[in-house]
Amino acid sequence: MNRPVTRWSRVAVVSVLAAVVVGVFVLAFTWPSVTSTVHAVPVVVTGEGPAAEALAQQLDTVASATFDVSRASTRDDAVAMIESREVLGAVVADESVPEVLTASANGVAASQVFTQLAAQLQGVFAQQLEAQGVAADAVPTIAVTDVVPLAATDARGSGLTALAFPLVIGGMIGGIAVSLLVAGVWRRLVAVLAYGVAVGVVVVAIGQGWFGILQGSPVLNGLAVGAALVSISAFIVGMTSLIGPPGIAVGAVLAMLVGNPISGAAQPVQFLPAPWGAVGQFLPPGAGATLLRDLSYFPAAPTWASWLVLAAWIALGVLLMTLGHFRSRAVLPAQDGLTPEAGRASAPAAG
């Protein structure tokens, strides 16, 4: 039998909808980069004297839109704040020559901000000394010190950034595969958890053992990778259990088109348009990317928030699986007006 010819109106609708889908993908993946700006970057100024006060005031006045300035007493305090990710950098005014502290482990974009800040401060510093009679060639250079550098095996941090997207795709693959191939709420849950463990081992073996992208404890990194994947997979499986195949689309859109662009994996959350950077940390891609960066380079940073977000999404997925299971059991007896017992009793007669 020949298939009937498609109506022209349907051809037009399909073409337009396909173009809209492509537009959504383009928007989702380009919007954060195009609209990102440097704003409210947390920076600390150290020192107690007039020079430190003047410098803090200058930053707060001239670059108030760029920096969120706080104060610390000593250089050691500033370093501790950077290592715990309370701030992204610091200006040390304890000595006669200022020093700029940065952490390249926060990403190349963040490091560039503080390199540019050092250049601006150098110009102001030179003008002040030259006004006091110091020759231009005798003006000291403001040093830029990287207190949390990237590993030599991932010197630009591109590996850590690139790792984030495969984890999102991996979470989607696991959720879709389990939804389509595994039946039973407990079997689905075990399948998702086993998938997370297996992928955690594989990713750490490649990303840490082979390429040296991840740093720190392999066990914690494996748990973080597994939790990030399971949080996405469990939600997709749960939504599919509850509403059927459309649940796959809901989970995929949330993870890839919403969560991934605002995850902060490629640049600090402060660079993303407000409030999306903060919102992204409450979604699995953002929480997972932040957790892996903290475990690798900022062991002093508190990680409980990221763990809690991932655990909450996993719990939500389990809850949705359970609700979908009981919903299916409630719907099946109502079909054709038969109870399960009546259906079984009538089956032989039907044969």
Automatic annotation (TrEMBL):
Asked whether the UniProt record includes GTP-binding among its keywords, one would answer: no
Nucleus listed as a keyword: no
Which keywords belong to this entry?
Membrane, Transmembrane, Transmembrane helix
Q: Which domain of life is it from?
A: Bacteria
Q: Membrane-spanning residues where?
A: 12-31, 163-185, 192-213, 219-240, 247-266, 304-323
Q: What is this protein called?
A: ABC transporter permease
Look up and give the organism this protein is from.
Answer: Herbiconiux flava
